[in-house]
Amino acid sequence: MTRKRVLSGIQSTADSLHLGNYLGAVRQWVALQNEYEVFYFIADLHTLTVETEPEVLRKRILATAAQLLAIGVDPKESAFFLQSHVPEHNQLGWVMECLTGFGEASRMTQFKDKSQKSGSDRTVVGLFTYPMLMAADILLYQADLVPVGEDQRQHLEITRDLAGRFNSRYGKTFQVPDAYILKSGSKIYDLQNPTAKMSKSSSSVAGIIEFMDAPEINAKKIKSAVTDTGREVVFDEKEKPGISNLLTIHSLLSGKPIPEIEREFAGKGYGDFKAEVAEVVVEFVRPIRAKALELLENEPALMAILHTGAAKARIVAESTLSRAYENLGLVR
Ligand code: TYM
Fold first, then answer.
1. Which ligand 1 atom sits closest to the C-alpha of 185?
2. What per-residue confidence (pLDDT) applies to 228?
3. Is the pLDDT score of 218 beyond 90?
4. Cα 109 to Cα 51: distance, rounded to the nearest angstrom
5. How confident is the model at residue 238 (pLDDT cuts 50, 70, 90)?
6. Residue 4 gets which letter from DSSP?
């Protein structure tokens, strides 16, 4: 029996992954890789929607790759690659653009938010067509499941719509993928603003736990996290978003159920609790950072892994694209 397929991607917009990326998505990448046939990639082309110095971008792509490997993405179990190494992504992306309504694309909330913030003259067209490239990323590999955080749900919806539309117009070509979004961790919040998501682009430095930061810095950030009125350590997302966020983080990293942590801190204050969360986070991140730094010392080895991954990915990508072209009526 053939194994079901899992696919996911991450942008290389920062020097470091943050805890939201890990708890919302990458943790699942690692968990799923033994059971499924998996395709994991760095969406370096999507990253071009944000203007970046070439040297900085180059460094970030490699740093992202090193961190994913350090977290446990296994290049032997997966096709682990860079989006820009597989040109079929852009080729199928164009097909997706020709299938998407202008109004439909205009309703994407991430596009609306980002373009409203910067104004239409400073918003690049790539931000508008972003979801269509993402749909191509997914559909090329006939993915069954796509592990992502909550913020990508709408992009998965449009991907499903586009797959269905193509299949009904041109005959069954694509697997219609399901989003794989777990309840816990699918939205990790900004430590300084616990009602907004932890984000590379909008969180303040103090609100975001970065894997490549020094342990002391991350410990300090947790200890200075905004908490709520009252002094009890209980999970209550409405009344206590700050404490609830820290409880989620602690529980997912330590493996302890939230009620057990609540019991441990009954009668103690926020200070003791935050000190323990800081320790859990720091001890979790420490070996990952060390491993990533070690991998970055050997750039040729890192590149070799990515090239092998792209070769694996292209076998599937080429075959899907060629079927899609044929079904569209393009002369082969
Ligand atoms: P990106 O690079 O913004 O984020 C990578 C993954 O991390 C998740 N995530 C979070 N999860 C929980 N809490 C948070 N605060 C948080 N912040 C980020 C994201 O949901 C994501 O799963 N468009 C994608 C990249 C992409 C992609 C794809 C993903 C391109 N093509 C195809 C899946 C399949 C993005 O910008 O993710």
1. 12
2. 87
3. yes
4. 21
5. very high
6. P
Cα separation, 137 vs 147, in Å, equals 13
Look-up of token digits 């202008």: 102
Per the DSSP assignment, residues forming a β-bridge with 281 are none
Length of the chain: 332
- The candidate with the shortest Cα–Cα distance to 129, out of 163, 84, 99, 85, is 99
- Tens of pLDDT, residues 46-81: 999 999 999 999 999 999 999 999 999 999 999 999
> Helical H runs in the chain?
19-21, 27-32, 44-47, 54-71, 88-97, 102-106, 109-118, 125-139, 153-170, 215-223, 241-254, 258-264, 270-297, 299-328
Report the atom number in ligand 1 closest to the C-alpha of 137: 32
Q: Are 64 and 12 in contact (CB under 8 A)?
A: yes
Task: Tell which residue, 123, 150, 155, 151, has the closest CA to residue 137.
Answer: 155
At residue 285, what is the residue type? V
Alpha helix ranges (H) inside 52-185? 54-71, 88-97, 102-106, 109-118, 125-139, 153-170
**Confidence category of residue 118, pLDDT binned at 50, 70, 90:** confident
Q: Is the pLDDT of residue 1 over 70?
A: no
Helices 88-97 and 299-328, axial angle in degrees (round to 10): 40
Catalytic option among 197, 221, 240, 274: 197
For ligand 1, which residues put their CB under 6 angstroms from it?
A: 7-11, 20-21, 23-25, 43, 46, 134, 137-138, 146, 148-149, 151-152, 155, 186-188, 197-199
Which run of H or E residues covers position 194? none
pLDDT, mean of residues 208-216: 96
User: Residue-wise over 284-323: b if at least 16 C-beta within 10 A, else e?
Assistant: bbeebbebbeebbeeeeebeebbeebbebbbebbeebbeb
